[in-house]
Structure formats: structure tokens, C-alpha cells
Amino acid sequence: MTKRTAVMVCGHGSRDDAAISEFSLIARHLRARLPAFDVESGFLEFARPMIRDGLDALKARGAEQIVCVPGMLFAAGHVKNDLPSEINGFAAENAGIEVKFARELAIDSRLLAASRQRIEEAERVSSKPTPRDQTLLMVVGRGTNDPDANSNVSKVARMLWEGMGFAWAETSYSGVAHPRVDAGLVQAAKLGYRRIIVFPYFLFTGILVKRIYAAADEMAARHPEIEILKAGYLNDHPLVIESFLARIEEVFAGNNAMNCQLCKYREQIIGYEKDKGAPQAGHHHHVRGIGTDADRAGHHHHDHGHSHEDSHEHDHTHGDGDERTGKP
Question: CA angle, 124 as apex, 171 and 23 as ends, to 5°?
């Protein structure tokens, strides 16, 4: 007898309502593409429904098998710790439901193709015929406390650089890792290229993407001799949806193991030796389900001295120093 299968799309969450709306589109697309499956979505922090809410809803509707898919590009602290903590807790309390965990979207040929199209869209908007051999591509990632995840952003930048024939490419980050996008743009402007394309390698909008675009606008105002184009983030590009579907299919094929070769929790990675063997524990209890900016409008809230969305993918290791400056 075939089990009643459901899909749970697990997001990070944001205070930005537009980001939540865009994330919800993924679940809507998957419902359309997977009519035989029950599909829910939920978030680790801020927004509702929370991941546990979604899992409980699937259970109430009779799910016997749930495939949990991370709605995140790379495997850093959230995919390696926070999501497993949430999902394992539910599974332990519901032994009659088979719960499976898909891997992160990772570096995927479909996502690279979607990235190329977003960059080409930005080029077409410009009225200046600047060739790519006079163009620098700036790929901006979220930034994490996981060097393996950060290095993936550099790999994406390199593959787009070579594949699309740009003169040069730089990598920067919106938080936690260096160089930050504003510092990266300062350096990029010194290299003498006529055009810089800023491409946020993000799934959805939010505080961080808006901050990246603001940094690009500021640099454009400081350097009118350089054309600075803002490429769109991935959003619900059809190839992004195909990537989600591929991760779900991998679960059924038994090919859903993520690459842990350079995971700081499995190996003693240079500079992160103390993290090997750290427990899988969630770190979002104090901001879980507290609402988006629209929910909290007019209400006082305490940000613990920083915005959790400054990094959006950090490991909440506050003892490592201030996530925005890198200083103690």
C-alpha cells in the first residue's frame, strides 16, 4: 500500500513581508507540480507558520511520510543544525510517520542557468553597449560562519565568470564573512572596468538584498563613470522550482546525502577545529514565530543588540564576535 506522502518546505524566515510572500510562492509552485502530494511550508524564525506548525498540519491531514526540503541554497548552520533539530524533534514524537530530510539546493546546473538569465536581464536593461570584456561581475552571498558554505559562493562566481566570459569576477557577502559587499564594491571600483554587475545569489528578497542594492546605488553615486547594474535574485525562476523538485526526487531515489567532506562539524577544518562534533541543536527559540515587521508594527521589540537577519544564515555563535564588524 502506498504511503500518503507530503512535502514540507522549510524556510529560514524573515521580518520582511515581501520575502515571506516570495517564499510562499515556492510551495504554491510545488503544489501545482506535485498534485499527488500534500505540501506545506514553514519558517525557523520570525514568520508564521513555524516549521512545527506545518508538520503538525500535515500530520492532521493524514500524512504517513513527510519529505522535508530546505528552502536554502547552501548547507551552513541552519541546514546542518537548526532544521535537523526541528525535524528530529517532530519525528521522535511521531514514530508512526516516516520523516525524510532532503539536501540543500547546493551548486546546481539549473541554478547556474537561472543565475545567468538574471544577469542577462540586467544587461538588457542597460542602454550602454558595454562588452563583457569590460565588465566585472560581483556575486554576493549571504555569508555564514561555515567556510564550506562561503566557498560555494566563490565557486558560483567562478563558474559564472568563466561561463559567461566576463573580464573579472569578485565575491562578497552581506554579513558575517568578508569581504562585505560595500568593501567589495570599493575594491571592484578600483580595477578600472567600465561596468560592474551586482548579482545577489539569494533565493528571495529581504533586508539583506535591499541592503545589497542600496550599497550598489551608493557606489554608483560615488562613481558615475562606472555603470553599476543590479541583477535580480533567483526568486521563483522556473529552474529554481526544477531544483526543488530534483531534491525531492533524490529522497525517493536514496541520493539525498549532502556533501560533508569539508563540513566543520565532521572534520577539523582550519580555524574551526573546536566545532567538530558539536551537537545538532536549534538556536531560534527566542525569535520563533514572533512575526514580521508588519505583524510587529507599532510594538516594541528587542533585537538583542543586532538583527538576526544581518546574516540570515549565521550560526548564532555570539562569542565569535560582532557579526557585522568581525570585531569582538
Answer: 60
- CA angle, 212 as apex, 140 and 291 as ends, to 5°? 105
Helix (H) or strand (E) holding 196, with range, is strand 195-200
CB 102 within 8 Å of CB 70: yes
The per-residue pLDDT for range 191-250, each reduced to its tens digit, is 999 999 999 999 999 999 999 999 999 999 999 999 999 999 999 999 999 999 999 999
The answer to whether 44 and 82 are in contact (CB under 8 A) is yes
Please report, for residues 6, 27, 28, 73, the alpha-carbon distance to residue 312 in angstroms, rounded to integers and kept in the order given. Answer: 27, 20, 23, 12
Domain ranges of the chain: 109-230
Positions in the chain short of pLDDT 70: 1, 258-270, 272-293, 295-328
Q: Where are the alpha helices (DSSP H) in the chain?
A: 17-33, 51-60, 77, 83-93, 109-125, 147-164, 181-189, 207-222, 238-253
Domain 109-230, classified CATH 2.40.30.60, yes or no: no
